[in-house]
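Thread amino acids onto this structure.
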């Protein structure tokens, strides 16, 4: 039987995209790091949009309010992540435009980015431990397969 936890594979891909960006920051390649952060943002936003279109409405309908997994938490975390990401994009853009930016600025940026990564990790754990398992328990195999198809098929 398939599980919605397969959707966590998308999170692994997002983690890799963020790691590529961070490697570029460490290498003081701020312009390339900004581009990599744009790629990460597009992938993250696409995943969140798909969750908000397909997963969360079903979660609201079938699961509702559970301790530590209120549907509003997921929506609020998405907004918070995107807001924090916008701030990081502005910061890396400023570093890319500053020819004097160096190691110290890279360290400062990575320290600021660490908070974003903690929020992202907390969100991922909430999805892994609550959202997907709770919804898994309430869907039929056919409903689960259809949801996975919707979430894992790239948009045309």
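Threaded sequence (156 positions):
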């Amino acid at each position: 039987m398939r599980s919605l936890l397969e959707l966590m594979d998308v999170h692994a891909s997002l983690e890799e995209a963020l790691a590529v960006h961070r490697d570029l920051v460490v290498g003081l390649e701020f312009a390339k790091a900004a581009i990599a952060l744009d790629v990460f943002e597009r992938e993250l936003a696409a995943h969140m949009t798909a969750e908000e279109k397909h997963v969360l409405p079903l979660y609201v309908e079938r699961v509702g309010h559970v301790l530590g997994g209120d549907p509003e938490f997921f929506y609020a975390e998405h907004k918070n992540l995107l807001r924090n990401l916008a701030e990081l994009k502005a910061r890396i853009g400023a570093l890319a435009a500053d020819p004097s930016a160096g190691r110290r600025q890279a360290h400062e940026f990575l320290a600021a980015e660490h908070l974003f990564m903690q929020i992202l990790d907390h969100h991922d754990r909430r999805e892994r431990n609550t959202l997907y398992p709770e919804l898994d328990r309430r869907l039929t195999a056919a409903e689960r397969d259809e949801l996975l198809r919707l979430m894992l098929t790239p948009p045309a």
